[in-house]
Alcohol dehydrogenase
Amino acid sequence: MYAWLCENPTGIDAVQWTELPTPTPKAGEVLIAIHAASLNFPDLLIVQNKYQMKPELPFVPGSEYAGLVQAVGEGVSHLKVGQPVACLAGTGGFATHTIAKADMCMPLPESFPMVDAAAFIMIYATSHHALVDRAQLKAGETVLVLGAAGGVGTSAIQIAKAVGARVIAAASSDEKCALCKSIGADETINYSRENLREALKKLTDSKGPDVVYDPVGGDFAEQAFRSIAWRGRYLVVGFASGSIPALPLNLPLLKGASIVGVFWGGFAKAEPKASAKMMAELADWYAQGKIKPVIDRSMPMSELKAAYAHMGTRGVMGKLVMVN
């Protein structure tokens, strides 16, 4: 097998395409032949030693992937050789093969394309957990999605619309705003040339959004919170801008609003039955056509460094997927 091996997390240049022995699954594990693996923002941070999870060195990056089971370890009964699966394991995806814990694999129907499957779990699980579970979003409420043209942003638009909410998508270009409209956003704000607070005031008749979905952090966080509706819920999803904002605590007091942390990985570990039920609902929504990953482009696995460079330009709309 071959894999992009990171022996020293100093950046993407430290990752090298390396031939390795094909491993044998142990008890509770499966060997997966990887067909597709998506590139997520944590995959960039982890090779820079900036991510919250610090894997043991050396490691293979690639948190999310899909492929076919090639071998099963002792005690694995719900998966079989030849079965298509998707997995969000944190590492191992940027390779031709990987070992995964069997209970972390999502069985796929034959009709589920591998590229979509590799771009599915992280963004939709995060957005469903955020909007449906943590925010308790209701039909008719208004959601502001920041960074709306990215992977989690596009999934948040689709899930909010599936719930019956009104969506205001905020992005950094007219092209990105057009993409958001094409997947269901009711209104858009190009915050590279529009004042976010003034635009929100106009679009909500001064009421403000009921829910703010923020995977970006940085300079727009306080502006968005100052615009939130009474009893609003501000979802802290991530910090793609690289800057963790500090919000004045008088703001939630004055707005009667909540700051709500969103960590799907922690939820999945602490509440596995609830997480499994959520994933089953998401699979049904995909089958019904309510949700579908937006794929910026697919690239050969050998071009991983070029894919990282493209992600670094902030020009990605939806998800980048590497294919074998």
